[in-house]
Amino acid sequence: MGCGLQRSISLICNGNFVDAFYMYPAIYTLILLFLVVAVNTFKNFKYANKIIIILAILNVSIIIGNFIIKTFIIK
């Protein structure tokens, strides 16, 4: 299910943002999740736990949905 994450990061580093999304659709929400966790580590803010939970659920949903679509729908 995590297949494509490294290639997606490589595409972002090369400036291919749309291709990175097509390679791994959860890349931008994962980046946002890691940024929120990193900021919360150094400076706690009011709704950090709720934001982290929502982003985690969103990421899991995108990853599983992408896996199902690529495995069973697109052949």
TrEMBL record:
This is DUF2752 domain-containing protein. Keywords: Membrane, Transmembrane, Transmembrane helix. It comes from Jejuia spongiicola. The chain crosses the membrane at residues 20-39, 51-74. It comes from the Bacteria. InterPro entries: DUF2752.
